Amino acid sequence: MAPHHIRKYQETDHKRVQDLFSQGMVEHIPATFRHILKLPQTILVLLGVPITLLLVSGSWLLALGSNVTLLVFLWLLARHPWRQYVVMYLQTDLADITKSYLSAHGSCFWVAESGGHVAGIVGALPVKDAPPGRKQLQLFHLSVALEHRGEGLGKALVMTVLQFARAQGYSEVVLDTTTVQEAALTLYLLLGFQKTGEYFVDKISRLLDISTIQFKYCFPSAQEGGL
Fold it and tell me: Which ranges in 91-217 belong to alpha helices (H)?
């Protein structure tokens, strides 16, 4: 296991950070596809359509071809939200990371270096519409390169955000993740985050039963104060 250290983002990291983010999001496509295949409505369609075509046409080739077509469509459906997510953030906050995360007090963006290369990323921004009496920091874009998984980089990056939040006087750290990001869900729960909500971002995510889960980490002083 190569030693690692975490530092603030530098402009020379820009392309690597964007690549890491994009790769991390695209990696969720297979898990999303498997999730879709397990849905009762998907099973019904994959069985019902070819059987119906076979009974109507008597052609096994047509029946099998319909299943291949359906599987391709489902793969494209699984890919769509992640591709859309990548495009959106590459054109917004990740287009100019210095401006988005390092130009104001109370926000930051870090990279984890391992073996001389950027192997992990995470960002944090203050929540503008936080509930009254709460000072919240939101965690964004946690991602670790596939070849560096299992080295503790994800945990180290999250702990960096928590330490920063405490030092900056935040009472809570919040974040959103999805039900198909199982490794992230496990990590956040192990580090003491609590689930606070769940919602569907759009009609497609509701149809596919892929919800976004909201998490919150409260610092002891905030918990004791009823926050």
Answer: 97-101, 153-167, 182-190, 203-207
